[in-house]
Amino acid sequence: MSAENRKILKVLQGETLSPPPIWLMRQAGRYLPEYRETRKTGGSFLDLCYSPELATEVTLQPIRRFGFDAAILFSDILVIPDALQRNVTFSEGKGPEMTPITADEIFQLSINSVFPHLNPVLDVVEKLRATLPHETTLLGFCGAPWTVATYMIAGHGTPDQAPARLFAYRERKAFLRLLDILADLSSEYLLGQLEAGADAVQIFDSWAGVLGEEDFADFCVAPVKRIVDTVRARRPDAKIIAFAKGAGLLLKEYAKKTGANAIGLDWSVPLSFAADLQKDSPVQGNLDPMLVIAGGEPMKTGIDRILDRLGNGPLIFNLGHGITPQALPETVTELVRHVRREEN
């Protein structure tokens, strides 16, 4: 059976499928009891990401349970700063932390040890492609340079990314250099995932929404375009989804200038605007993750709105951001069945 039969690849090539294929951001994780059991044996969160056996297992868990049309590699956007020896740690209740980077350190960054450090992640991709059902699309991913840079500069997550924005104004040359380094490393990382068996990749720009128009063009659009161009120079057929959370009206230029095959939509994107975007490229999204906690009729109504407005064009059904730990697996089953019109 050809890989072309994978539904998500068909949509990324511009086809309209009814019902649309479905996967969920963060579909492997804390809302699943089997994940919590595996997590107990995995050591630190990064140890879990770098364990080919355990990372493969947690990636497969939601596929076994829900039969999603795509599996997304279980890893984290911060493995690249970790490979750059920024001392990344994850602690319960605090999120990721690392040594904040200075302007001088940016110009001294060594990339020599990055790819050996990331080899275990590529091993996960190989194991997944060998294990997944043939019809399941395998997605790789990376963090977008802007979002990864915000953590590297602040040393932790912040609500409005003020440390990174201030750094970019005061140390523009160093900041643009950091974005270039991250774009080039991310390109090689995604190429490695594609070579290892990923069918397509997604670029996550989770903090795109804090930037004004000009900074968005320089810090989000340009680095993602650099990644897309670099990947396509070696893999002209590469399928790339770009997700710029909170970008709003700027998504139209983002879609046009980055060259991504499909655009991910957060839940704040109006469906009328999403339908306009869909005239030029496939879209992915955009159910509010809170509706998966609410469940029942509110969730079904939200699903129906998306299918009514976007179901007649190339659509990958997804959430507008990652599923939350409060979601119940039974509600996710209900979501999948409703999207696929499988209810009795």
List keywords for this structure.
16 helices; alpha/beta; 9 strands; 344 residues
Describe the structure concisely.
The chain has 344 residues and is of the alpha/beta class. The protein has 16 helices and nine strands.
Q: Any overview of this molecule?
A:
The protein is of the alpha/beta class and 344 residues long. The chain contains 16 helices and 9 strands. The protein has helices at residues 7-12, 33-41, 45-49, 52-66, 79-83, 103-107, 114-131, 145-154, 162-170, 172-196, 213-234, 251-258, 271-278, 289-294, 296-310, 329-339, and strands at residues 70-72, 89-91, 95-97, 137-143, 200-205, 240-244, 262-264, 283-287, 315-319. It has a 7-stranded parallel beta sheet with strand order 1-4-5-6-7-8-9. It has a two-stranded antiparallel sheet with strand order 2-3. Helix 7 runs parallel beside helix 10 (172-196), helix 13 runs parallel beside helix 15 (296-310) and helix 15 (296-310) packs parallel to helix 16. The longest helix has 25 residues, at 172-196. The chain is globular.
What is the element layout, followed by pairings?
Blueprint (H helix, E strand, L loop, with lengths): L6 H6 L20 H9 L3 H5 L2 H15 L3 E3 L6 H5 L5 E3 L3 E3 L5 H5 L6 H18 L5 E7 L1 H10 L7 H9 L1 H25 L3 E6 L7 H22 L5 E5 L6 H8 L3 E3 L6 H8 L4 E5 L1 H6 L1 H15 L4 E5 L9 H11 L5
